[in-house]
Protein: GTPase HflX
Amino acid sequence: MFERSRRGERALLIQPFTAGHSDPSSLEEFAELARSAGATVVGSVPARIDRANPATLIGSGKVEEALSLCNAVDADLVLVNHTLSPVQERNLERALQRRVVDRTGLILDIFAQRARSHEGKLQVELAQLRHMATRLVRGWTHLERQRGGSIGLRGPGETQLETDRRLLAKRVDALQARLAKVEVQRTQMRRARVRQGVARVALVGYTNAGKSTLFNALTGADAYEADQLFATLDPTVRRLDLPGGEVVLADTVGFVRDLPHDLVAAFRSTLSEARDAQLLLHVVDASDPARDERIGQVDEVLREIGAGDIPQLVVFNKIDRLDDASARVDLDEDGAATRAWVSARTGSGLGGLRDAIASRLARERVSGRIHLPSTAGRLRARLFAAGAVQSEETCDDGWRIDLDMPLDAARQLVADADAEAAALRDLLPMDDRA
Structure:
């Protein structure tokens, strides 16, 4: 056993990598994560792993090297840029005589510092408890004590570890129940926006790409922004005025490479703002040399949360940091806006971006006049409930309705109503009529 330092501010980084896959940018990002958590990076140890050591992940030689460097630079914390098993974390702590935190634990610590809303705090606590559940046996000797010795408590007793596990499980159940209630409330709010016919747009992207700065520039909001990873954790929703009407714009948490699956699961309700959007503004740092790689990593997370098929408009931000980039909007062969080049900091290109968003949303809506027979009363009621009816005329054999609604909502109605929705199906794009 050893006495854990409570300072935890001078951090040594261990960067595992496999042969042929050494990536300096990965270590730079991990160092930035450490600084975002409040640590001072005092050194790093690259550790090639041909086959992971089940006891410590890295080899014994690298463990000795890390211990020597920790002593030399007076590090009181070791951060490992990899997910560690509970056994590996515990063995490394014993060998290095310092607290060891893996990549998941570091990101959780940052999230705990940045969460501001009630829902965000609940989600962070839930993710932390799940991560902690398998790590209760670490360096605390009190976890081995047993209750007993008093009247009614004699016998085999209950270890402190078992008590902690039971209390932790109860807390997890309570958090899940509270989050379920919050999710119901958030779902009701989204349904209200759908009934009002308001289009939904969400900002997504790699962390520190400038999403919150762009959000503030477009909406005039005052969402927190800073040049650091995960500056914004809680989703913020504001109305955005566009040519042709208003939309709802949501700012969401940024992504990083290898985002732990537990975190994706814990923040699924927060990320539902992206999952339920009609258009995603995929914000990219145009000055980042690895921007193409970042785009792929964000797309992977979007697929994981069920948002991989939502239309995207890629927004290359921070063009003020480039010498040869100008504000513009790129179109595909069908005339649809696919990429916009802007600077949220200077405001360059924001007018073109607003026009591009409006034009893309217009392509994601269905409008026109349909005739519903008198037998399609259920579909008519659902169109009214969705806020799609612009005007209606009663005729001898039913209704003539002028409607305007999101394309995805129309697709859902066609799929649900089937035979009743023949008239609505004719308004869909050709690919959806089969």
About this structure: The chain has 14 helices and 14 strands. Residues 160-195 form the longest helix (36 residues). The first strand starts at residue 10 and ends at 17. The two ends are 68 Å apart (CA to CA).
